[in-house]
Amino acid sequence: MHEEEKSKADKLCAFTFDDGPNITTTVGVLDALERLSIQATFFLVGKNINPETAPVMKRALAQGCELQNHSWSHSHMTLLSPDAVRSEILKTSDAIESVTGSCPTFFRPPYFETNDGMATIAAMPMIGGIDCEDWVPSISAEHRAQLVLDRVEDGSIIVLHDFEGNEASIDALALIIPELTRRGYAFVTVSELFRMKEVDPASRETLWQRVDL
Prior knowledge:
With 213 residues, this protein is an alpha/beta fold. It is 40% helix and 15% strand. Strands 1, 2, 3, 5, 6 and 7 form a six-stranded parallel sheet that branches. Helix 2 (25-36) runs parallel beside helix 7 (167-182) and helix 6 (141-151) crosses helix 7 (167-182). The protein is globular and about 45 Å long.
């Protein structure tokens, strides 16, 4: 879907995927996104970036997806020193830039945990979102889909996970996308969501759950 088509949609939402990249589930997500003709935003864990996963990252970009920062080790940032938090973020941005040639522009704190100084340390907007508890293996694809459909609204940032073995979230996409399309949604990246909503992501030192005026 081209941007002019997205701009005509009644509502917008952004799908995001955390904890990759890898050569299994991330690839499955990209296959599903390609079949569905939509783009998403991947929040990457820096320690997972290596020569094996670099082609997966490049494929995501080729499909129009975005790659953003989800820390180096997925640690609890609020338990780390400011210098350690800074290192977690900078190492990940450097690793992404080494593969793609460009730096991330958004940071998602692991577990959505923040403190007063984190926005300053990150030096980029922090992104949260609505989740569907898809890190819990016992929650089925159908349940995950229903949780998203119950919680989504215009401007929502939807949080899913592409860690290895989480194929149920790929199956959930096939249930979520047709229903949201029926409801009048278009699917955009996080950057597109802010741009198309005409909201400056740096305008608030907050953990963005949804983009609204």
